[in-house]
């Protein structure tokens, strides 16, 4: 599924967006989970600051 999402981003309209993955630590268990999102290129830095 990841290949399909990345391939669709590389065609025409998707060049202005990036797929970002952030590691987040759970408050309850202390385990790490990964959050994936597709954001505009201008918002990538702001996404990781949150």
Write a structural description.
This protein is an alpha+beta fold. It has helices spanning 2-9, 44-49, and strands spanning 17-25, 32-40. A two-stranded antiparallel ribbon has the order 1-2. A hairpin with a 6-residue loop joins β1 (17-25) and β2 (32-40). The mean pLDDT is 81.
Outline of this structure?
This protein has 50 residues and is α+β, with helices and mostly antiparallel strands. 28% of the residues lie in helices and 36% in strands. The protein has one domain.
List keywords for this structure.
two-stranded antiparallel ribbon; 50 residues; 28% helix; alpha+beta; elongated; 2 helices
Largest sheet: 2 strands, antiparallel
Structural Rg: 13 Å
- Determine the strand fraction and express it as a percent band: 35-45%
Structural class: alpha+beta
Helical stretch count?
Answer: 2
Write the layout of secondary structure elements.
Layout: H1 2-9, E1 17-25, E2 32-40, H2 44-49
Antiparallel strand pairs: 1-2
């Amino acid at each position: 599924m990841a290949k399909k999402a990345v391939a669709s981003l590389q065609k025409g309209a998707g060049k202005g967006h990036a797929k970002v993955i952030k590691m987040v630590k759970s408050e309850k268990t202390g385990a790490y989970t990964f959050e994936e999102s597709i954001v505009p290129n201008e918002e990538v830095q702001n996404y990781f600051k949150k």
